[in-house]
Design a protein that fits this description.
By secondary structure, the protein is mainly α. Helices cover 65% and strands 5% of the residues. The chain has a 4-stranded mixed beta sheet. A two-stranded antiparallel ribbon has the order 2-3. Helix 11 crosses helix 18, helix 21 packs antiparallel against helix 22 and helix 28 crosses helix 29.
Length: 776
């Protein structure tokens, strides 16, 4: 560049030139993409996994299914009836006819009846599936208890099932028969044939009992139409395409998403961890290509293999399964799923391709970011299971009964896209169009977050080239004590959050019944708050840091902050109640949960207000804020990621509440509290806002019941309970927004710990000054 021209460039021109130099170039991304695709296509393992394995796996499995299909056919089972003398006389059964009858009457030398038996007319079953044997009760009684003999027969496998009849069916002239006969059915739960024989025999016995009852009622002069007043015929009004797509719309997206996730992970491991082992990653990073260009090129390659894996596996599975089920000869109409085995409708299934693009991109970005943390391909494979364990619940959730697409489910990542595709495949286009914007927004947001995470991983030299020294417990413990700082490290913050959440999870499992008195509620609240949230925080702050005050962020902010925080704490409560109401409409609370919480609410409403505020407001505000916006936030913000600290602590804070609806609202409030902690550099404003919000929530019904003209204009009472008047809610919204703007002005800048120093010795108090962490 000409020096004269360079001198003549203004500052804005230089900024634009620098921004253009940092902008990713499409040509460079294309070159990296082609390089990665060429390297992967040269790998025989990749070709085998992506192309050959899907084409061979499902046909081989189909051949095995055809070979073993003969074992799935109905196998004959043996049933023995003991007490046939009570079944063979028609007079005994009052005109119903014998339950079983012999085709021939022969006697062996032992006197036992060895003739083949069959069920009577109207109760028959196929002789090939149920072989019946019969013995008289008196004959077996000579050698011992017939019931003990029946148990030995079933245990030894002589018969799959034994039915003993002790007495005349339906009563008779004898004294024993007056109490009715006793029928026992012996089976073996560990034997599949015995279970099958039990089910088949029970069907026949129930049918015979119904016939016997009908005959007796008819004999007594009862009209049989009373038992069957009308006939019921089920008619499926769904079109044929919808019936065919009903099965595949649930199974095929699940298969494709699982294979898309699997197909993304192994190429991602090879493109990052594999290059670390081969020593080619350093060469790529030293090239003129930007880190962002490298990420986009690798992401495109991983996404390509992810989509190819999902498509080829889906096509191979559909073709193979349709042929196999057709060969097994499932009769159309005999099974409600038989229409699905003819194969999915092709045109509706094209919606899967539309959904596969963003989901493959999401899985590829996650796999690329996770693979960047691995130092070898072997280590990278260990990370596959945690990633699948986190993602699979989102894929399995749409398969639960009753899960349909609505605004609440559409806002769940992956699950909303799954339900949207199922809705489109089933032809419900209006419902799909109604919730498609919400699904697209959430999917796009998750995709942006995943790609940003992957890019940040490639920008961190510590992640890409971390040392490979082996971890040793003793050295690690000495390092924790010797190299302590005034604030927690990011690893210590994550560890504290994990300990708290795991402890709360197991503590909630131990609670089997909700207490109905205030003493029990106090124990239920104080034990987890002090023992599982505050105690680990104080212990780790004492052991892992040199200053309890600094690690818990117990700094007094500027006096100008407190008036704004005081007004904001009062103005936020209408927003919190409105947010909770919206969340309850999106994700309704079950009737069982409402009934279980009723004793809790009644005990709280009848207890003294001061005790309730102390227990439900002051204690949670202190314990939770010191843990999440104190120790954990102070450690995470040192990682040059202030907004990551805000979001991570908000999510941890929300998950700690346990109930879904409360967790979502607490997460939103956690974002605001984290932002306030970031602006003020202290945990104290968050404690005050948390305290006031909880105190207003637990005392809202009592305040609403007061007789005051001013309160009548602020609070309205409905059938669902008291709520704020719309005008007052709008005023509070405006005041809250004004308080946020004032807080930005009066706080000046974030007062946080820097990554390189201990923090509270270098607090920036000057108005307008910013912290290096916030500047990044």
């Amino acid at each position: 560049m000409n020096p004269d021209n360079e001198m003549s460039m203004t500052a804005s021109d230089k900024r634009r030139a620098a921004k253009a130099a940092d902008r990713p170039r499409v040509a460079a991304i294309g070159l990296i993409y082609l390089r990665e695709m060429r390297d992967q296509l040269r790998d025989r393992r990749t070709i085998f996994t992506i192309v050959v394995l899907p084409m061979l796996l499902y046909p081989v499995v189909g051949m095995l299914l055809l070979q073993v299909a003969q074992f799935t056919r109905v196998q004959p089972t043996t049933v023995c009836f003991v007490g046939t003398e009570f079944l063979g006389d028609k007079s005994v059964t009052d005109g119903v006819g014998p339950l079983i009858e012999a085709s021939e009457r022969e006697s062996s030398e032992s006197g036992q009846n060895t003739s083949p038996y069959r069920f009577a007319q109207g109760l028959e079953v196929d002789q090939s599936v149920l072989s019946i044997h019969g013995y008289e009760w008196a004959e077996l009684e000579r050698s011992g208890d017939p019931r003990e003999q029946a148990q030995r027969w079933v245990s030894n496998g002589v018969f799959d099932c034994v039915v003993t009849i002790d007495g005349v069916i339906g009563g008779g002239p004898s004294a024993e028969a007056d109490t009715g006969s006793k029928i026992d059915l012996f089976f073996h739960v560990a034997s599949d044939p015995s279970l099958v024989a039990r089910d088949r025999t029970m069907v026949v016995l129930n049918r015979w009992r119904g016939t016997w009852v009908r005959t007796r009622l008819a004999t007594a002069g009862v009209d049989m139409q009373v038992l069957d007043p009308f006939a019921i015929d089920t008619i499926d009004v769904a079109p044929e395409e919808t019936r065919q797509a009903a099965f595949w719309s649930k199974l095929l997206p699940f298969i494709m998403l699982v294979w898309a996730m699997t197909g993304a992970f192994y190429p991602a491991i090879d493109l990052v961890a594999g290059e670390k082992e081969r020593g080619t990653l350093e060469t790529l990073l030293c090239s003129p290509a930007l880190r962002e260009e490298i990420v986009w090129g690798k992401l495109g390659a991983v996404m390509t293999f992810s989509m190819l894996t999902a498509l080829l596996n889906a096509i191979s599975m559909v073709v193979t399964s349709s042929s196999v089920f057709r060969q097994i000869a499932i009769a159309p109409g005999a099974n409600p799923m038989s229409d699905a085995f003819s194969g999915p409708p092709l045109l509706p299934m094209l919606w899967l391709l539309v959904a596969l693009v963003p989901l493959s991109a999401l899985f590829s970005a996650l796999a690329l970011a996770v693979a960047a943390m691995a130092r070898s391909s072997k280590e990278g494979q260990y990370y596959l299971m945690p990633l699948m364990m986190v993602t699979l619940p989102l894929v399995l959730l749409p398969m639960l009964p009753g899960m349909t697409l609505n605004l609440g489910t559409g806002l769940i990542p992956v699950t909303g896209m799954f339900l949207l595709v199922r809705t489109l495949v089933e032809g419900q286009y209006w419902e799909a169009c109604l919730y498609a914007p919400a699904v697209a927004f959430v999917t796009l947001l998750c995709l942006m977050a995943a790609t940003r995470w992957a890019r940040r991983q490639f920008e961190s030299e510590a992640v890409l080239f971390g040392d490979g020294d082996q971890w040793e417990l003793g050295a690690w413990m000495r390092h924790l004590w010797r190299d302590r700082e005034q604030a927690a490290t990011p690893n210590a913050a994550y560890g504290c959050g994990a300990i708290i959440l795991v402890a709360l999870f197991f503590a909630k499992l131990m609670v089997t019944e909700m207490p109905s008195n205030f003493r029990g509620i106090a124990n239920l609240v104080l034990a987890p708050q002090i023992g599982l949230i505050l105690a680990p925080t104080l212990l780790m702050a004492t052991v892992m840091t040199t200053s309890l005050r600094s690690s818990l962020r117990l700094r007094w902010p500027s006096w100008r902050v407190w008036p704004v925080v005081a007004v904001l704490s009062l103005a936020l409560h209408p927003f919190y109640l409105l947010l909770a109401s919206w969340i309850s409409q999106l994700y309704p609370v079950s009737a069982e949960a409402t009934a279980s919480m009723k004793p809790f609410a009644e005990a709280i409403s009848s207890a003294p207000l001061a005790s309730v505020i102390f227990l439900m407001a002051l204690v949670p505000a202190l314990c939770e804020e010191l843990a999440f916006r104190g120790f954990i936030f102070g450690g995470l913000v040192r990682n040059n990621s202030p907004w990551r600290a805000v979001l991570v602590t908000a999510v941890m804070f929300g998950v700690s509440h346990g109930v879904l609806q409360q967790s979502i609202s607490a997460s939103f409030m956690g974002v605001l509290l984290g932002w306030i902690a970031l602006r003020t550099g202290s945990v104290l404003p968050g404690i005050w806002i948390h305290l006031v919000n909880n105190a207003l929530s637990v005392s809202f019904e009592r305040v609403a019941s007061l007789d005051s003209p001013l309160l009548d204009r602020i609070v309205t009472t409905t059938a669902a309970g008291p709520s704020y008047a719309p005008l007052w809610t709008a005023i509070c919204f405006a005041v809250s927004g004004l308080c946020v703007l004032l807080l930005i002005r009066v706080s000046g800048g974030a007062c946080e710990v820097t990554p390189a120093d201990s923090g509270f010795d270098r607090i920036v108090d000057a108005p307008g000054a910013t912290d290096p962490a916030l500047a990044t």
